Amino acid sequence: MKLEKFRRKNPRKIGIAIFTVGCIFLLAFVFIYSSFASFQTNETKTLINGDVVDPGDLYFAFYVDGQISKTMPGKDDGYSLVSSTCTNGASVEWLNDEWAPKILNLTQKRTKCTLYFEEGYPVEVIDNNTPLPIINLQSSVSLDGRELVEGEFSVFLINEASGEVVEKMTNDAEGIFNISLTCTEAGDYTYILRLVNESGSGVTCDETEYTMHVKVVENIREDGYYWYNVVATIDDNPVFHNSYKAEPTSVTIGAVVVLRGENIDNYEFEFQLTPLNGAPGEKEIVKSESNGSIIFSKITFDKVGVYQYELQQVVGKYSDIKYDESKYVITITVEDDNNGHLSATPEYSSSPIFVNEFISSSGSVEGP
Question: Could you tell me which residues are beta bridge partners of residue 113?
Fold first, then answer.
């Protein structure tokens, strides 16, 4: 009774309330439908019965890798259509060259077509025995320490299940490996990418192994037409970082001292070798041998370059000796054979022979 009395006294309020609730339900329906059901798109090129038309009352929903999307992937984005459904008895024929759906049997308005895309590349074949190439997969290699050479590194593609090497690829001049694989039937496959050093000595190879997953899905149309979708992914970024370093080399610098007018066995002379402009090694002073030989310590070189040293005699304690004050520059050129070996070649500004002279008590220089 109270409700009936309220309805008779407040018809306008009741009408407004009903109208408000109706609007809320309508807005909720539109929101849910537009967000989760389908997307009308005037950007999707659509062929209906062979003619290109604006979709109009034709609606599309897109799923990319199982997730609903407001846009359809582009032709060069690395996806392919794996399935489709339409309401009102319509169907989709996918035209890959045009990258567009052809809608067949479209007879009613507000038809909705749902297109499902997955990462991969479609390969059309006549029967199941045609090999299926996997395309556009790459790996790369870098080399620190010297210039990379085309073909010096190889990557093996190994079937994880059998351990069989199914493909071998060599790097191009830019360090790229173009991965090419063939399959003969649908299934899930796992492969290992492993780098092999075929470049010789001096190279330390990256021992990282990368896993490649391959999924081949067979599709069969009612008219017997076969096609496959091939999805291939590689874990992480398959880049192999290698380094090159040649074995060090060394050089021993030597000279000779002679003494005019006296037996050199009775004297000991000192000589100094000084690195110039940051050349390897430290300044060193050595004494001459009894036979006049001058031998410095080995100098080790671990990188390519041109290095210079200055050689001179240290004026000593003997008052009866006139010291040769000549200076010699030794240039050492270090080269790499790119096969792990350095070589060092010394070149003297002139023959490093120091000539000292004995001075007699009378003050005259003795000797021939």
Answer: 60, 86
